[in-house]
Design a protein that fits this description.
single chain, 636 residues, 27 helices
């Protein structure tokens, strides 16, 4: 790269930073109420900036040649031109009842092509290929076999619908990105920049310091808390793994096991309230259930998820004789950690309070961000007894840096939402969604369990190449309606899809969270992937648990909920023993298999299955105790 090319690239980076600050500030002003913008302009402005930033700094290219740099510049101009055009046209289109012109079609083709290229070069080829297949359907519908046959749609009809309506590119997915996701990404960036990440790590370490497998358990709690900062499993791994993985390796864990524990723990950050993965905010729009209702339903399954990893690392530690209790180990003291950084916990507590009391998620995140800045300033005044010029300068730098980072973190999610919007648009326009729903019902022979298994497989396969947000949107649009039509409650169906979309990041052969974790651990990616899959095996059972045991979603009487939770905890405990193959001593394969069946029966809500499960588990523990006594007698 010569000097001129380097200058151009640096200029692009500077321009991207400026645009990130502008669009981040725009969204904060919108949420605050200072700026009043209707829904369509909000979506258009958001996508215009996101695509421009993606073109400037997010596209993956081997070499930055004069040609590629020129094409980037043209791409930014095209993105802005399309955005400005639809901003001047959308009201006229609405007032005319949706009448569009050939110019609308040309701009529609331009933005669709641009989104496909950006998706291909920044998100991945798989999502781009899936979107392309859906885009072809309106034109090849008449030639499709059987139930997939459909009437043909013209070029004008297809692209004007996708571009100029609120059911395509500027539909629900990008609306959620512009309303919810960007605010939470900015909130996470503020938490990170203002020291909350360091505080959460020390807090996690202080809680687990005296336990067996302390470092692994620190990683688990830290990952659950960091989920509030990062909205993706890979991002969670990058933040938490950079600290936790070296610490686990130092305590005796192999690189593979350290990477696997971190990958599974980080994946759980997406399903753990109060700040769940970005797809959870899409669920609000698609189901009509308030975010507080989704948090309430997800809390028990999320806690069971993390509890299962807790049990697994505990028994793994005992089995491998690593990271055992060490009273002499230098640790963080909880009282000292809270004394030093208690004020950083206040905004997080406030966020939870706001969400529970019915504030909209973006308002809750906004007020929590303001509180974080206020308590940070007050803590500094109390500590330093004054406000210096350097402190003010540093504060402004942190605020702008947080806004910039938050906007950057939103870019890949927004691009995935725009691409998914094209899929949803084609489904809406052609009605193929209803046909695919009927196809799934027919393939499962109207048997709910079969339909659930098909949904799981589809979610996992899509998750091998797509972000969780895109996986959820596609499956929620195509498959979830089939589950609902077969009798599954709407929220349960969407949570079922959401869970499998999340855990697809630890499912080989393509497991993104495991890949990132393996890179940090300097371990073989395939070994980390399969070990993470083993450690996360219970997470593949959890969605079936809450479908067949709705009490786990806090649906039912208090007695039913408490009974179901307690029995499920025992089931998860036993399943963890079965997976690791250790309980005070190594367990043979036959007993492990019996324990797995027994544990599985416990997590399936019902008195008969519970009784059978307890009998099987009791038998194994009796035999293990009996064999141990015989070993002792023989030794004597």
């Amino acid at each position: 790269m010569n000097l001129t090319e380097e200058k151009v690239q640096n200029y692009y980076k500077t321009l991207a930073s400026i645009m990130a600050v502008i669009v981040g500030s725009f969204h904060l002003l919108y949420v605050s109420g200072v700026l009043v913008v209707s829904s369509m302009p909000l979506r258009v402005i958001h996508l215009m900036f996101m695509t421009s930033i993606a073109i400037l700094v997010r596209l993956k290219t081997k070499h930055n040649t004069p040609l590629t740099l020129t094409l980037r510049g043209i791409g930014v101009l095209l993105s802005c031109a399309v955005g400005i055009y639809i901003l001047t046209r959308w009201q006229a289109i609405i007032e005319s009842g949706g009448v569009t012109t050939s110019i609308d079609t040309y701009f529609g083709i331009a933005i669709v092509a641009l989104i496909l290229v950006i998706t291909w070069k920044s998100i991945g080829k798989v999502l781009s290929a899936i979107v392309t297949l859906f885009l072809l359907y309106p034109f090849v519908g008449p030639y499709m076999p059987g139930i997939l046959e459909n009437r043909a749609y013209s070029l004008n009809r297809t692209f004007s619908f996708l571009f100029a309506s609120t059911q395509g590119i500027y539909g629900i997915p990008i609306s959620v990105a512009a309303s919810y996701i960007v605010i939470f990404c900015i909130y996470g960036a503020f938490l990170s920049k203002f020291g909350a990440g360091d505080f959460l790590f020390k807090f996690s370490s202080a809680l687990t310091s005296k336990l067996t497998a302390a470092t692994a358990k620190t990683s688990i709690i830290f990952s659950a808390l960091v989920g509030m900062i990062s909205g993706s499993a890979a991002g969670n791994v990058a933040i938490a793994g950079a600290i936790s993985i070296p610490m686990m390796k130092k305590r005796g864990y192999s690189a593979v096991k350290a990477g696997a524990v971190q990958a599974v723990a980080a994946t759980g950050g997406q399903i753990m309230p109060p700040v769940m993965g970005a797809a959870a905010f899409l669920m609000v729009e698609l189901t009509g259930v308030p975010y507080s209702g989704i948090m309430k339903a997800a809390i028990i399954p999320a806690l069971l998820y993390f509890l299962s990893i807790f049990f697994i690392v505990h028994f793994t530690s005992l089995k491998d004789r690593v990271d055992l209790k060490d009273e002499s180990r230098e640790v963080y003291v909880l009282s000292e950690v809270l004394k030093e950084g208690w004020y950083l916990a206040l905004p997080i507590i406030a966020l939870i309070y706001f969400l529970i009391t019915g504030f909209s998620p973006f308002k809750a995140a906004y007020y929590s961000t303001i509180m974080l800045i206020v308590v940070y300033v007050i803590a500094n005044i109390i500590s330093e007894k004054k406000v210096t010029y350097n402190f003010v300068k540093d504060l402004i730098s942190k605020i702008l840096g947080s806004i910039e980072k938050g906007a950057y973190d939103t870019v890949p999610i927004s691009i995935a939402c725009a691409a998914s919007g094209l899929i949803v648009g084609v489904i809406t326009m052609t009605g193929i969604g209803a046909k695919l729903t009927n196809l799934i019902i027919a393939a499962s022979n109207d048997v709910m369990l079969l339909a659930m298994i098909y949904t799981m497989i589809i979610s996992i396969i899509l998750g091998m190449g797509l972000p969780t947000t895109a996986v959820y949107l596609i499956v929620a649009s195509v498959v979830a309606p089939a589950l609902v039509k077969m009798g599954m409650p709407l929220l349960t169906a969407h949570l079922y899809v959401f869970f499998f979309g999340c855990i697809s990041t630890i499912t080989p052969p393509v497991a993104l969270a495991s890949y990132v974790s393996a890179g940090i651990a300097d371990a073989d990616i395939n070994k980390v992937g399969w070990t993470a899959f083993k450690y996360g095996l219970i997470s593949f059972i959890l969605p079936y648990m809450f479908v067949y045991g709705p009490a786990l979603l806090l649906q039912g009487s208090v007695v039913e909920v408490i009974t179901s939770v307690l029995v499920s905890i025992v089931g998860v405990y036993v399943l963890s023993i079965s997976i690791v193959g250790y309980f005070k001593s190594n367990i043979n394969t036959v007993y492990r298999a019996i324990l797995f069946v027994g544990g599985f029966l416990l997590v399936n809500q019902g008195y008969v299955t519970d009784i059978i499960g307890f009998i099987l588990i009791g038998f194994v523990f009796y035999m293990l105790r009996k064999n141990k006594r015989m070993d002792v007698s023989t030794g004597e």
